[in-house]
Write a structure and sequence with these properties.
By secondary structure, the protein is α/β, with parallel strands linked by helices. It contains twelve helices and ten strands. It has helices spanning 17-22, 44-58, 76-83, 99-115, 132-136, 138-143, 155-162, 174-186, 204-216, 227-236, 241-259, 274-305, and strands at 8-13, 30-34, 64-68, 90-93, 124-129, 148-153, 190-192, 222-224, 264-267, 270-273. Helix 2 (44-58) links the parallel strand 2 (30-34) and strand 3. The chain is globular, with a radius of gyration of 20 Å.
């Protein structure tokens, strides 16, 4: 089971430096520096020149730092050359539709890691699906890579490709989102996303509900576009206190039964068997992963690198 967690991934346009400079104060588990959709073509070259220093700035608070590159043969290599530096956690590949795209991306990443003296395999890959073709080829896409860490879906782009508008019920997203969650879990990857669009960042109650619905489908975190959304995601994708209490009691109860030579018992009038025990262990493991991330961020802040 995946032990890492990224409850919140805040997307920032790398060419808006006031956003980048404040990124380390936002509390996100990951910062995604965007040189794709948020940067016009005329600004791409300038944006690339900002990436190396922006990685350092965005990472001061202990967050993972990723770069969203352009999935375009004419731009992706330039983007990678600008991005593969010390401090980078991963590359976010949008508009993924074919396994060849992943294989080619990883080849370039490996070359740049080696030539720049970075630890081999240290740069991970996050796959972003934005089309029906990407959903249909998802397993092939995942099997083509050895660096893939997470899967996510661009809701608005997917709906555009389907010729529909996102609905209030999000029923059109259930199949593709379930597919992403299922494939991610099958391959021990992080499924990231909410059951809806992140664009309505002023409607926090609706955003929270979309995040809760995704969590209930098996998602472990999501990306977002506004700092106010970060706190919501961190809360939704962390085990609640009552879950932790339940998990602790289940583990204690079941392990007492095991010591008596039994693999089933009861707690509060309900059966506790091996699957229930494993569910409880998963809750405790998720809580530990959250603690690790929060400790990392606190350590970065207490080191004096982050202004109060």
């Amino acid at each position: 089971m995946q032990s890492k967690i990224q409850r919140s991934m805040l997307i920032l346009p790398v060419n808006v430096q006031k956003f980048v400079e404040k990124a380390h104060t936002r509390g996100a588990d990951a910062i995604l520096l965007d040189i794709e959709d948020a940067v016009p073509v005329s600004e791409k070259e300038h944006a690339r020149s900002l990436v190396k220093n922006s990685i350092r700035l965005a990472g001061k608070g202990g967050s993972d730092v990723l770069v969203r590159v352009n999935n375009d043969p004419e731009m992706v290599t330039q983007d990678l050359e600008a991005s593969i530096h010390d401090g980078l956690s991963g590359i976010f590949l949008p508009k993924t539709e074919a396994p060849e795209q992943v294989a080619q991306l990883e080849n370039v990443i490996g070359f740049l890691e080696n030539s720049r003296g970075l630890e081999p395999g240290s740069i991970r890959v996050s796959i972003h699906i934005e089309s029906p073709m990407g959903i249909l080829k998802l397993r092939e896409i995942v099997e083509a890579g050895s660096r893939i860490e997470s899967l996510s879906m661009g809701v608005d782009d997917y709906c555009l490709e389907m010729g529909i508008r996102p609905s209030s019920s999000a029923s059109e997203l259930v199949f593709p989102m379930t597919t992403i969650a299922m494939v991610a879990r099958a391959f021990n990857l992080l499924p990231l996303g909410i059951l809806g669009s992140v664009a309505n960042f002023r409607e926090m109650d609706k955003f929270r509900l979309c995040a809760q619905n995704a969590r209930d489908m098996g998602f472990s975190g999501a990306y977002c576009i506004h700092p106010d959304q970060v706190k919501v995601l961190n809360e939704v994708f962390s085990p609640a206190n009552e879950e932790l209490v339940w998990a602790g009691r289940v583990v204690e109860c079941f392990e007492e039964a095991l010591a008596r030579g039994r693999a089933s018992t009861s707690l509060d009038g309900k059966m506790v068997d091996t699957p229930i025990y494993k569910q409880a262990l998963a809750v405790l493991k998720a809580a530990h992963a959250v603690e690790v991330v929060e400790d990392r961020k606190r350590a970065a802040q207490s080191s004096g690198s982050v202004e109060p």
